[in-house]
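Suppose you are handed a protein chain with no further information: no name, no annotation, nothing but its sequence. What can you learn? This example shows the usual starting point.
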Amino acid sequence: MANSFYLKVISANRIFFSGRCESIVVPEFDGEKEILAHHENMVIAINRGDMRFKPEGENEWQEAVVGMGLVEIMNNRVTLLVETAERPEEIDIARAQEAKERAEEQMRQKQSIHEYYHSRASLARAMARIKAASAKR
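A reasonable first move is to predict its three-dimensional structure. Written in structure tokens, the prediction is:
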């Protein structure tokens, strides 16, 4: 218990994980950051991508695809707030592929800057979901 911390991963529609962990690796805008027990207190912006964490007492890492958000590290407690959090086995590859194709089509259309950023975000999310789901199968 001395080398673990409390982790809570909250997405827009559910509490994805709540419990003690030994380590978590989150995607940042310039790479990845690993958080271990007794990490310095801070708040970090999270990018879309692959997240992995190792629950206390387990030998295997658990993986997830997360959307944009932030992580707060405070007093050996880590709270990850993200748009979405999905395990690779929960992802429907066909649906993700359709979302990717829709986003690519939208990117080819003339759009306002707001619509462009929305399309780009949709494309990035679809590609992250496809990558994670394909790697697990």
